[in-house]
Amino acid sequence: MKKPNEMTIVEAARALRARSFSVRELWDACIEAIRARDGELHAFLEVFDADERAIAAAQARIEAEGDSAPLLCGIPLAVKDNILIEGKVASAASRMLANYRATYDATVVRKLKEAGALFLGRTNMDEFAMGSSTEHSAFGPTKNPRGLSRVPGGSSGGSAAAVAADLCVAALGSDTGGSIRQPAAYCGVAGLKPTYGAVSRSGLIALGSSLDQIGPLAKSVEDARILHDAIRGKDPLDSTTIPDGLYPQRTVPNTFRIGIPDFVNRTLLHSDQPLGMLAKKLTDDGHTLVDVALPTNQYALAIYYIIMPAEASTNLARLDGIRYGCAARGKTLLDDYVLSRTEGFGEEVRRRILLGTFVLSSGYIDAYYHKAQAARSLLRTEYEKAFEKVDVIMTPTALSAAFAFGEKKDPLSMYLEDLFTVTANLTGMPAISLPIGGGGQLPVGVHFTAPHQAENLLFGIGEAVGKAQGA
């Protein structure tokens, strides 16, 4: 029999309503799991004290409303350290913000509080979400619960590890170029990046403002849907959020037309590897694999690593030791700036700030940044055209299973980990990573992209993948 902390949102909600255990017992089960395992995993940067008032209110609401109470009522969640919770530290895993305490709730946190959800703590991440392994946290790396010598992925590695190790029922992460989906694949859980603008970014510490999205990491596709439905919606505090129905609505088909891009190795689809086995099972179930041409995709990684550092350098300019952040003092004002940013930022953050500043400089902005934006527009057009003949597009989530700590010392080899995921952020389209394979091996993920505001197609194909795998 599953322990309360091992349950999905759906299972825990059902058990709470059946009075199999109380909200407090569910909370305590998660805390006990954290005490037992997080010493070796380091998924959490801080575990919060129990909010007795919120726990009692959630219990009373379930008893009063029964099945009509929100499914998230009384459910303990983990939150990535770049999402603000009023009164709690939000450091983005950086010494620059190590003592910053949020003065307001992020919109997603406010919505989850209104649904009765509880917050266990803030999870580890790559500093300012810059990384693909959670090795770049200023407070030490997180380990993969599926193999302690392996990275959990990044930058939402702490949230993914917490979900995979059953330290929480579900979690929130943020995704700039794959930071939810890649760690979901490495840790064997489901991870969703919603359509750009579907979820408010108010209260999210920004990396790339045209790329970032908050989304769920969960133990099932249904749980991802529940969390997404709870946090989505237009927000007056975020002018980039979009109303329902902005894009044409898509009906979930009985059988999917699954696009296979021209850059995916065809031998992989006909192998006995997890992706090949899944492709065969899906076709056996009546779904169709369709070849699609996406020629500009070969430049997607280069486009991303011009636009993202440019936006990062702009967003982090405010953290100078004068108005915000770590303050180190030298003999001159210039020394103050240099020392504060050198001591406050880690190596990877400094690298990306320098790269972003370079591509935005007067002599190079036309050669790099403006060309990258033009190519980004072309990439989006190609994907929109592809979705005229397919419902979703399928790729691997990452190039391989989780790699060992220290294996990707060359920054370029680390950047390649984002190869299959950055396009969803560049185009603004929703995408999901689902765990496939198993049998004692390290988990891998399959990645699906859908048209704008067609998350329902992602949940539908998720159900089809679960059926194909016998789940």
Would you kindly provide a written description of the structure presented here, covering whatever features stand out?
The protein has helices spanning about 10-15, 25-40, 50-65, 105-115, 155-165, 180-185, 220-230, 265-270, 275-285, 300-315, 335-345, 345-360, 365-385, 410-415, 420-425, 455-470; strands at about 45, 75-80, 120-125, 170-175, 190-195, 215-220, 255-260, 290, 390-395, 430-435, 445-450. The chain is built from 16 helices and eleven strands. The two termini are about 15 Å apart. It has an eleven-stranded mixed β-sheet, sandwiched between helices. It has a domain at about 5-230: Amidase signature (AS) enzymes (Alpha-Beta Complex), CATH 3.90.1300. The chain has about 475 residues and is an alpha/beta fold.
Spans of at least 5 consecutive residues with low confidence: none
Largest sheet: 11 strands, mixed
What is the overall shape?
globular
What integer is the average pLDDT? 95
Strand content: 5-15%
The total count of helices amounts to 16
Structural class: alpha/beta
What's the CATH topology name of the domain at 4-231? Amidase signature (AS) enzymes
Number of strands: 11
Order of helices and strands: HHEHEHEHEHEEHEHHEHHHHEHHEEH
Q: What is the second-level CATH architecture of the domain at 4-231?
A: Alpha-Beta Complex
CATH superfamily of the domain at 4-231: Amidase signature (AS) domain
